[in-house]
Amino acid sequence: MRNIVIIGNGISGVTAARHIRKHSEDNITIISAETEHFFSRTALMYIYMGHMKYESTKPYEDFFWKKNRIDLVYDYVEQIDFKNKNLQLKQSENMEYDVLVIAVGSKSNMFGWPGQDLEAVQGLYSYQDLESMEKYSPTTQNAVIVGGGLIGMEMGEMFHTRNIDVTFVVRENSFWNNVIPPEESEIINRHIRKHGFNLMLETEISEIIDDGNGRAKGVKLKDGGEMDAQFVGLTVGVSPNIDFLKDSELETNKGIKVNEYFETNQTDVYAIGDCAEFQEAPAEDRKPIEQVWYTGRMHGETLAQTICGNKTAYQPGVWFNSAKFLDIEYQTYGQVGNQPDEDTEVHFYWEHKKGEKSIRLIFHKEDKTLKGVNLMGVRYRHEVCDKMIRDNWPMKKVFQNLKKANFDPEFFKKHEDELVGMYNERYPNDVVKLSRKKILGVF
Amino acid sequence: MKSLKIIHKIGLIVFTIGFFTFLSLFFLGQYQLDKNDLREVIGEETFPLVDEFASDIYDNKYNNQFAFISDFKSVLEQSNQEVKAKFEIKSDLAKEIANSIEGKAFQQSAIEKAIGEPSGEEEEWQLKQLKDYTGWMEGKEYESSEELTSQLENVIADVNKSIISQKGFSQNNINNKAFTITKQSEVGPVVQNPWLWLFLAIGIPIIGAIMYLLPKLKTEHAGIKNDGIFHSALKNRGWIGILLGTFLISFYVFLYWYPEYMTSWIVMVDPLSKMISGNPASQWFMYGFLYTLAILVMGVRMMIKYRHSPYQLIRTVSVMFFQLSFAFVIPEILVRLNQPYMDLKNMWPLDYTFFFDYRLNEMIEAGTIGLFMLGWGIALFAIGVPLFTYLYGKRWYCSWVCGCGGLAETLGDPYRQLSDKSLGAWKIERWLVHSVLVFVVVMTAGVLYTFFTGSSELLGINTYNIRAAYGFGIGAMFSGVIGTGFYPFMGNRVWCRFGCPLAAYLGLVQRFKSRFRITTNGGQCISCGNCSTYCEMGIDVRWYAQRGQNIIRSSCVGCGVCSSVCPRGVLNLENRDENGRFNQPSLIGNDSFGVQS
Ligand SMILES: Cc1cc2nc3c(=O)[nH]c(=O)nc-3n(C[C@H](O)[C@H](O)[C@H](O)COP(=O)(O)OP(=O)(O)OC[C@H]3O[C@@H](n4cnc5c(N)ncnc54)[C@H](O)[C@@H]3O)c2cc1C
Ligand code: SF4
Ligand code: SF4
Questions:
Q1: Which of A236, A258, A293 is the last residue of a domain?
Q2: At what angle do helices B423-453 and B463-470 cross, to 10 degrees?
Q3: CATH (domain of A138)
Q4: Which chain B residue has its CA at the smallest distance from A194's CA?
């Protein structure tokens, strides 16, 4: 029986543990310094907004761990002695391992702004970050959020529910347009403003101002202006949380260097999740560091195979992701760049007249097969999109079957006909006929 | 915008004032007993007896129902004492009878001998009772005179026990009379001006509620707004929740067992009842009226809150419609037309009295319409349930049609997050709800056996006792007091989840033979837990969603809220081909190996 020790009780570490338990009787220990039990980081905002209690963000009831013989240690790993396979913990005795999985996640980026260490200046990543947001909220009337990304959006929405005025300071000229195409980005700009947020585009801060007691009281902008802010949110991305490993023999760059088996340069030591950096991107449309929930989970699933004797290379399938901007849900499948590439892509972009829903289908120009799907305010079926992209469905087949891809609830207005109309208009010689709807879903 | 927010706030104040007016009505009644009313209620024959004790209180004007009812009940109890003294048989008589027996075998003639020629009403009654009670002893041999005496003493005790129920007022009877009399003796402000009070106590709160709700259409954007729910003293078992729960529980206790104390509320709706059905209001009319209003007003709230979802809009309109028409207005109109009262969308076994003798007789006697009702009621659960549940899942009833479900989905919506999601609760649920199903089947079988054979004993158990036990334990206690009273403590579907036998039956069909499922959208779940938190049935939806598995649970009522609150669009209620309904847990997106989570 081996001692398998996992540092980090996030989605990647926990998934690895669960899957290892399915195939082996080894001892499994998970160490984390954040919370005693695994909780869903993605739900942090809902705790603050009063949608849920911390308890309800735990995906497994507390008895689960004991029942599955997964030991939990609530402590911080200070150092790792890779030679002697030994962990030095902050509070408890040293711990030995036979196999070590490092799944320590990320930390919020800080770009060296003057004043970034003041009180009430922070990112949102950990449970502790949430607690300090709670702490400063009652004394905050204006919050400035630096960076136009998903976590910034969440932070803004959180403050909004406490009637705190929120200003987004975004370097780009449109929200999140370094990731999504301009039209979708514009939908978000409009939506944010409609909800009463102050959105400052093409703006950067130069400094955070001290109120004299060590707390933020405002920001200075690069172009000279100043703004009040009793809270400054820094949401300009995250990076691997590996400072405590920087001086060790473990090979790191931005993250911990791993190959496709999540092997590091140390024997029996693996890294997964946000903190792993692939020597080579796992697929041509992927990045060497993947910092989303889903990939963390997939890393854990795959590594468990290798640890249990079935050596398996990580092979992610068709990319997908989702998020929510206030009331607008966002889903994406396959490859969707932030700038349509006229030379290699054919786009079909439909937007609802109220401007809060859109569907974008992207085809390869060359062989007219589906490349990616981007959706705002509309839900599509993962299984169908995955199949259409993976099996290189040609354009006509995609449109013929587009209705099957829709995943919106019953009675929602469906818009696939309008997209088919666009197709028929563009290719009048090869039109797609539409099928009839069933009465009461039966006849 | 600003003025809308002000209207919103004023609405809350108006509602609160109205609600307190409603509450205060309970204490506002004044009562005075009228001799003619009393005569009418008691009946000409017994009246003189009661009159003797009641004459003391005719002139009293009572300022609260508690004193009045207590005095009135004591009048009847005094009458009982007198009756008892009058008709009681002395136990010495046993010896006398035994002594006048010749030989070992008992003969009824000995009773006549012992009593002699009956003089007056009392002795006639005593003789008749004794003969009735000893019929089975005729000719029976007794070893000794002592043995016979003690047997006879038992008989006499039994006869004496029957005095109250036959000649006086049983407890049940006292309660019924107290209800009628209290209602008729109301002389307070409400009875003088019921329409005004109806406006003040019901109209004003509704106006307040509408003022509170409608501005949200403009002040809040469409979309899921569960902000602050777990910070709320009302919605997270805080002090307001506790007060509300206490109120609801007390309301149900009065309604089921002490309706005579809530006559002020009933008098208030009297004119309305007369308008609709032609009869004065009973506590059940008042209850139905408030119930319907609650569904309508809170239905409007539900529609505003979930207005981004057509599924929720249509579903809410549906429960509002069925409550207003099928449950409230149509039955009253049937009564007006001298037809049996029937809620045509309610069905056995939720409607557990459907096969009770009085209902069957009523339907049989009502001719074609009655027989149609009988056939309809049977077809609903025998054909409707399997068919529609196969096609659409149990939601076709539980969250679209049913009255209990209707209340849960509207009045109860603010408490849905309080349901227990633990595995332990699920275990209890399965045991409990299926036990109630077995209970109702056994109870109904017993009742039908008695109906057809006339014998009230089945396998040594008295079918009336089972039926009474069910009515008290399940019909009143579970579905009313706990089912609704516990909204602010255990969520809005306590009854539907743990107690409703119809839900159990629908659930069995849904689990094993249905096209309905909640589809999980591949690997998109982020395990946030919103779905589980807001599932009123306490289903840990996330458990399935994060494994990429469809949710197929017998308890799911298809309210669709899990799907509405999911921030990633992972869940979809669907009726589809049964193939692939029970999918293997598997998550799309990882091609490394065949992932089974
Ligand atoms: C607010 C927010 C919202 C998000 N929303 C989404 C979303 O909607 N969709 C999506 O795909 N992704 C989302 N993400 C990203 C996603 O949550 C992360 O990619 C994922 O949680 C990373 O998981 P992980 O297991 O790699 O690491 P983590 O979840 O970060 O777990 C690492 C754990 O290790 C602990 N740890 C670190 N160092 C040590 C040490 N030395 N000793 C002991 N313990 C240590 C940390 O405290 C932490 O608990 C969101 C992230 C945030 C912050
Ligand atoms: S699983 Fe979803 S649809 Fe079913 S009862 Fe729960 S919340 Fe409603
Ligand atoms: S609400 Fe949606 S994303 Fe959250 S746990 Fe449920 S299914 Fe998953």
A1: A236
A2: 140
A3: 3.50.50.60
A4: B221
DSSP string, A121-136: EE---SHHHHHHHHHH
Cα dihedral B262, B266, B267, B269, rounded to 10, equals 150
What torsion, rounded to 10 degrees, do the Cα atoms B339, B340, B345, B350 define?
180
Structural domain tally of chain B? 1
Q: Are the CB atoms for B555 and B507 separated by under 8 Å?
A: yes
Mean pLDDT of each 10-residue bin along chain B, 597 residues long = 93 97 93 91 88 88 93 92 90 85 82 82 86 85 85 89 88 92 92 95 98 95 94 96 97 95 95 92 96 98 97 98 96 91 94 94 91 95 97 97 97 97 97 97 92 82 88 92 95 96 97 96 96 98 96 97 97 91 82 71
Distance between CA atoms of residues B574 and B585, nearest Å: 18
- Which residues have C-beta within 8 Å of that of residue B411, sequence separation ≥ 6? B294, B295, B298, B487, B492
Nearest to B511 by CA among B430, B390, B429: B390
The model carries a pTM of 0.93
Q: Is A28 helix (H, G, I), strand (E, B) or coil?
A: strand
Beta-carbon contacts of residue A397 (< 8 Å; ≥ 6 apart): A388
Q: Out of B566, B572, B597, give the residue to mutate to test ligand 3, the one with the largest number of ligand atoms within 8 Å of its CB.
A: B566
Q: In whole angstroms, what is the distance from residue B450 CA to residue B458 CA?
A: 8
Instruction: Return left, alpha or beta for B43; rule: phi > 0 is left, psi -120 to 50 is alpha, else beta.
Output: left
- Distance CA(A317)–CA(A322), nearest Å, equals 16
Domain of A276, in residue numbers:
3-107+239-307
Residue A14 tokens read as 């926990």
Q: Which two tokens stand for residue A71?
A: 């030991």
- Tally the residues of chain A: 443
Q: Using one digit for the tens of pLDDT, what is the confidence trace for A94-114? A: 999 999 999 999 999 999 999
Window 420-479 of B, Cβ < 8 Å to A: 421-423
Transcribe A204-252 into DSSP letters. Answer: -EEEEEE-SSSBEEEEEETTS-EEE-SEEEE-S-EEE--GGGTTSSS-B
Q: Which domain holds residue B156?
A: 33-56+87-187
**Residues 6 or more apart from B367 whose CB is under 8 A from it?**
none
Rounded distance, CA A108 to CA A254, Å? 13
Using the 8-state DSSP alphabet, how is residue B141 labeled? B
Q: What is the pLDDT of residue B103?
A: 78
Model pLDDT, residue B127: 87
State which ligand 2 atom lies nearest to the alpha carbon of B531.
7
The CB-based long-range contact list for B321-324 (8 Å cut-off, 24+ gap) reads B322/B400, B322/B401, B322/B402, B322/B403, B322/B406, B323/B291, B323/B292, B323/B295, B323/B296, B323/B403, B323/B406, B323/B407, B324/B292, B324/B295, B324/B296
CA distance A167 to A229: 9
Supply the residue whose CA is at minimum distance from atom 1 of ligand 2: B556
Nearest CB to A327 within list B223, B422, B543: B223
Q: Out of A254, A284, A307, pick the residue that ends a domain.
A: A307
